[in-house]
Design goal:
about 600 residues, alpha+beta, 23-stranded mixed β-sheet, 12 helices, about 45% strand
Length: about 600
């Protein structure tokens, strides 16, 4: 049948020419597609083998080249380590700390140049998309430093016989399933991530970039995004979660948003399972600057210049439990200069806090109540946060400078110094608290000291303490006026605190010092503190009770005064008893006289 739309001769020539070209292209595509898979397989296997010193092997089921689309689709790719090679490297102390296993259902390579690969030995790809990648990482500390590798050639030098260049514009891994196995401890710790996205931009391996240190794994930038991360501690007492974590190799910045450490049980049930204190926390954002991901990936060492924590809260609840066997567990590991050595290897120059609300709760077994101390809107810096032995040789002091609102009322400035290498775990802290109404501390005073402050104004509180694992010494100067208190006693049957009216009268009239200084012409009182730490006291409880050892005598509630008050109360109770006894005797005598009088009257009648 004649083609009516081909009216002119040149129309027919053009049409048949295009038809022939199209047929030739299709035939060529079929031929290329037929022979491309084994060529690609050989190139891919040789490249992986050469670049990893035969440690890894790669395989796939099928590869299809779409010439007209300019893309390759590869199915069921697997990357696995060669166990024999790994064991040999491990025996020679050259094995890496991380081993990888990868499975990808489908890999799409877009904007490819197959003839450039075949004829010029240049692998140039515009974009790679991995569908449903599943990655397994196994970590084992085979060495703590970079090992001496016999083959010191760059990756380009190792692959240059097969390829002159590798360039990939973008690599996209979406919805990655990652299983991370840490063999460092006595038990294998497993973490699984299911909502992970990874991207690599401008991967280039050639003669020019082989020495380019600005690139990470030969990429101009790599970034990762993890969403809705949830994990649980090994003992099951805590869950931790983050809404989103992001990291970029270009900025070397790690960010985390909406992070929480959540206790899985309420305090009563929590303390039935452990003798440790209970911690819960939340952070709006965490930013780690100049994070060395390569060092972390190799050795699990957190090395960074600055960690910024913004807007959050932390609560510490002291465990009231005592060992039923009478054993007292030393809680020295709660001291910051001890606890830091239970963390992974860490070296951070500065930790900055912005808008953190901190609180410490303690349960009083006598009053059956918990007291709370609050530090609102904490801001400040921690310097030289490290447990790295080399860094500690240069500087073994961790400094902390903080400003906060104590009980959300008085401005408090406090400086800490922690010795990170002293065997006695020495530390010091000093600070000053500004003016505030003294009744603001009743949430701590009522349950913990059985004292209700009814009035009083704090002018200032200054303190300077030096301590270690055994105890602390120092000085407290507390300036105030118009202090009045009400002593309390726990009523366990009615579950409330009863006012001790007479005891309060004695306290206010004879013991409590209502002002410091006592008058305008007197010198302010400063209280020397010598405090011996009970071994079962954690750091925050120790610090609080050390301050309390100076604060109570400032109010006149020293041991001697309290003993004197107790003696007066005991004497008062004894006097009351004696008065009742005398009254009872008088009533008894009166009754006897009455009975004798009635008996005499009856006898006369």
């Amino acid at each position: 049948m004649a083609l009516k739309f081909l009216k002119c001769t040149w129309h027919k020539v053009l049409f048949f020419s295009l038809l022939v070209i199209t047929i030739l292209v299709l035939i060529a595509a079929m031929l290329v597609n037929r022979y491309w898979s084994p060529i690609l397989s050989d190139k891919l296997k040789s490249t992986v083998t050469n670049s990893t010193d035969s440690l890894y092997q790669v395989n796939f089921d099928d590869a299809q080249l779409h010439v007209l689309k300019g893309q390759i689709v590869i199915y069921n790719i697997t990357l696995k380590p060669d166990t024999a090679v790994y064991l040999a490297l491990k025996k020679a102390h050259l094995a890496p700390n991380n081993l990888y296993e990868l499975h990808v259902k489908k890999l799409i390579l877009k904007q490819i140049h197959p003839f450039s690969l075949y004829f010029k030995h240049k692998l140039d790809i515009g974009e790679i998309v991995l569908s449903a990648p599943s990655l397994r990482v196994s970590y084992q500390l085979n060495h703590a430093k970079d090992t001496v590798i016999k083959d010191k050639r760059t990756l380009y030098q190792q692959i240059s016989k097969s390829l002159k260049m590798i360039h990939i514009g973008k690599v996209m891994l979406n919805d990655v399933k990652l299983r991370y196995e840490n063999h460092k401890g006595p038990k294998v710790a497993v973490s699984e991530l299911n909502d992970l996205n990874l991207n690599a931009i401008d991967l280039l391996i050639d003669s020019a970039t082989q020495f380019d240190k600005s690139r990470f794994l030969y990429c101009r930038e790599m970034n990762a995004e993890l969403n809705n991360y949830i994990g649980q501690s090994a003992n099951g007492l805590y869950k931790y979660k983050a809404k989103q974590l992001t990291f970029s190799t270009r900025t070397s910045q790690l960010n985390a948003y909406d992070c929480s450490l959540i206790a899985t049980r309420d305090p009563d049930e929590f303390f039935e399972h452990t003798y440790r204190d209970r911690f819960v926390s939340h952070l709006d954002s965490l930013q780690l600057n100049n994070f060395d991901f390569e060092i972390y990936n190799k050795y699990h060492t957190v090395n960074a210049s600055n960690l910024i924590l913004t807007n959050g809260a932390i609560n510490i609840f002291g465990n009231p439990r005592t060992d039923p066997r009478g054993l007292k567990t030393d809680k020295i590991r709660t001291f910051p200069n001890v606890a830091i050595f239970f963390l992974p290897d860490i070296k951070i120059d500065t930790v900055s806090l912005h808008g953190i609300n901190a609180s410490y709760e303690e349960y009083n077994l006598k009053t059956k109540r918990a007291g709370i101390i609050k530090f609102n809107r904490v801001k400040g810096h921690l310097y030289n946060v490290t447990n790295d032995s080399a860094a500690l040789v240069k500087n073994n002091i961790c400094k902390i400078q903080l400003n906060t609102l104590f009980m959300n009322k008085g401005s408090l400035d406090v400086d800490f110094n922690f010795n990170l290498t002293d065997k006695l775990h020495s530390y010091s802290y000093n600070g000053k608290l500004g003016s505030m109404n003294l009744p603001a501390i009743n949430p701590a005073a009522k349950p913990l000291a059985s004292v209700l402050i009814t009035s009083g104004r704090l002018n200032s509180l200054s303190f300077d303490m030096h301590g270690n694992s055994d105890g602390a010494t120092g000085k407290v100067t507390l300036l105030y006026h118009d202090l009045k208190v009400q002593l309390l006693k726990a009523d366990t049957t009615k579950l409330k605190m009863r006012h001790m009216t007479i005891a309060s009268f004695f306290a206010n009239a004879l013991i409590i010092k209502h002002n410091n200084p006592d008058n305008d012409n007197a010198q302010p009182r400063s209280i020397p503190v010598v405090y011996q730490r009970p071994v079962e006291y954690p750091f925050f409880k120790t610090a609080w009770h050390t301050l309390l050892a100076g604060i109570k005598p400032s109010f006149g509630l020293d041991d001697a005064s309290q003993k004197n008050m107790k003696a007066r109360l005991d004497q008062h109770k004894q006097n009351v008893i004696e008065r009742k006894q005398k009254k009872a005797i008088r009533m008894q005598k009166k009754e006897m006289k009455r009975q004798l009088k009635e008996a005499s009257k009856k006898a006369n009648n």
